Amino acid sequence: MNNSLKVGVLFLGRRRPGFDMDWGKQMEERVRKRLNKAKISFFEPPEKAVDDTSLRRVLAACEAEKVNAIVLLQATMGDGRLAPTLAQLWPHPLILWATPENQDGDMISSCSLVGVHCWASVLRQMGHPFELVYGDPEHAETIQRFSEAVHLAATVRRLKTVRTGVIGGQAPGYFAMSADPFAIYRGTGAQVQTYSLIEFSNIVNELPAEAVAADVAKVKALGYPHKDTTDDDLPVASRLYLAMKSFFENENLDTLTIREWPEMPNVFGQWPYLGVARLADEGYAIGIEGDADGAIGAWIVESLGLGRCYLSDWLEHDKQNITLWHGGAAPMSLCEPVGKPGGPRIARHFNIKKPACIEATLRAGMPITVYRFWRCDGKYIFSAREGETLKPKRHLMMTNCLARMNCDPRDWFEDLCHAGMPHHVGVVEGHHSKFLQRVARVLDMQVM
Fold this sequence. Notes:
Blueprint: E1 6-11, H1 21-35, E2 41-43, H2 52-64, E3 69-73, H3 83-89, E4 94-98, H4 112-126, E5 130-134, H5 140-159, E6 163-167, H6 181-188, E7 191-195, H7 197-206, H8 209-222, H9 234-250, E8 255-258, H10 263-268, H11 273-281, E9 285-288, H12 292-303, E10 309-317, E11 321-326, E12 345-347, E13 357-361, E14 367-376, E15 379-390, E16 399-405, H13 409-418, E17 424-429, H14 433-442, E18 446-447
Parallel strand pairs: 1-2, 1-3, 3-4, 4-5, 6-7, 6-8, 8-9, 13-16, 15-18
Antiparallel strand pairs: 10-11, 10-17, 11-16, 12-13, 14-15, 14-17, 15-16
Helix pairs in contact: 5-14, 7-9, 8-9, 9-11
């Protein structure tokens, strides 16, 4: 993701000297020097924005370079009257970076934070999204915040072009996961395209035998042992995997969710969970049971660079722990190593005893964030809490995880139910709740 991002760096200038201009020049050079060491590509227009006309030229240069995000710096306080113009010309989240004052002497050196505060208040009153960065470019904490802001701004912009596929609708009874295309578009900007299970079936059956055989060889090379399945089950599993992947590629989808029960094991003789787990591990944003918002949430964490998402049921809880479990579709990279206790095995479903699922336990001692984006009462809501995975107290068939949370899960679960949260939560490695809350804020979602 870093290698595909290009950021436009806009410095606000001044028509007349003010504050400590030498300090401002030093700070600008420190910013340039530090950004040149970053993994993200940067573009600085050939001039500073000092008035409306120059701002329009600067932004046109950024658009010609196809930047994904724009960061605005005023190492000495610039003209706040330019904020409405930039908001009109760039309808995406802006990154406002305030650099520090000179700590030597009694001179007010930059007023950079004051300038950012002015811009932030104007943008907020206009309903225009933005992110704040404050600090010295040579400080690791500042660069981390800046990197997060870039990924956030680029993700929110890209979300407006996301194409979500729903195959077969939501699973029976899970009305809260239904993919209302207009509510999803209003809340995130993503579009929804629907496909029938008959269309999916046609793709499954039309796949060339050579492509299926080649994919079976790939699965064998992964080295996943069988629990109660055999290699004879792999060709159908590969057909289901390749069919789902073809929807991503041929329908130009960014996210996909599929209604896998009750029909699929009866029609195809197999569940698609092995294929779902493989796609998730490859970085595809894929949901199950028709969970469109779950798939969009997986896309968001992938776009932010946070890694693979596991969509899970919330099976049970006590005052400290949550048991996170599902029918066998967790990304294998989040699980115990192959060949170790709890490592991935290809298995039959726990209930309808047909292949092919992944039975595995999420790695113990892993920091995680449990989160969800969802719709209720005509608006999007977001919630997240952090925790750490433990060794489960008992083995559970399919995908198993015990998580010690930094909150009382009983209270959180009750609040989520009263807020209409649907069936699944997302699980991602690392502690990212505050970062994800900032994403939700920029998207104008309610955070709880």
